[in-house]
TrEMBL record:
Keywords: NAD, Oxidoreductase. Belongs to the Gfo/Idh/MocA family. GO terms for molecular function: nucleotide binding; oxidoreductase activity. This is Oxidoreductase. It comes from Cellulomonas bogoriensis 69B4 = DSM 16987. InterPro entries: Gfo/Idh/MocA-like_OxRdtase_N (IPR000683), Gfo/Idh/MocA_domain (IPR050984), GFO_IDH_MocA-like_dom (IPR055170), NAD(P)-bd_dom_sf (IPR036291).
Amino acid sequence: MTSTTTALQDPRSAPPLRWGVLGPGWIAGTFAAAVHGWTQGRVVAVGSRDRERAEAFAARFEVPTTHVGYEALVADPQVDAVYVASPHSGHHAHALLAIAAGKHVLVEKSFTRNASEAQEVVDAARAAGVFCMEAMWTRFLPHMVALRQVLARGEVGEVVAVQADHGQGFAHMPDTHRLHARELAGGALLDLGVYPVSFAHDVLGEPQVVTALGSLTRTGVDGQVTMGLGYGDRAQAALHTTLWARTATTAVVAGSEGRIEVATDFYRPTSFTVVRDDGSRWTFDQEVDGGFQYQAAEVARRVAEGRTESPVMPLDGTLAVMRTMDEVRRLVGVAYPGE
């Protein structure tokens, strides 16, 4: 078995960028640690409706400026780009707020609650001429860069099947937790299922057919969903997500001449093995610390180039993912307040 790595730009080589964090939750902490640890960028400000939360985040990550309220954060002249890390239900309004202030935006996934809200954010960003991207960090990780290279070289032939799952044991969370709250756009799909859906889109694009079977929680959000995506006459994707069990979180891309087996957790820095029908195989395995730094570096590079989108995670790609998830929610019977 041969271990192979791929050439990838070091996130530290990206130009510096001054970040403002909107919403100091745990994922924002992961982002701040990655920016400070493996890029030239800095988180220079944090905004929260809760002064104590903002100050605690600032102290932990050595952020020099705190703001009470999001309006003050996006108005801060030292901030180049805003990382929107609020709950899904707030992404639309908070991204629009930052865009209106002339800031570049990196919006946590899921990008918004639905495709309609996503389109409004995309239209606003394009009209304002600012950079905008969904924070689907997986797309920028070394193993995903290498996986796309394998597919481009045709090593496994024509792709005919994709499998991916993402389940976590969150059943113990209280009904008031954001994962179970309809008003916060909770449920497995937007929080966990977005990873396998985006993976399938990365490999195969937007499906022509979407099927889904789901089970709801007592609060009315999706607790578990199995999805089938259809592409033309042959290719299909089988995807699964759940709040009720820790699943294998692996992925497989099967082609007419072989397959790619992506190890757990497929959405984090990991390895994969190419298994060809001729009996040959090789493994990609590149050690990575952190992970969020790759998407932060992508934003910094594109902003420095004067570009307003990433070719790796383009806005049209985000809109396609949102359309797929809208159809899945329609099929399983999940709607959020105000939709």
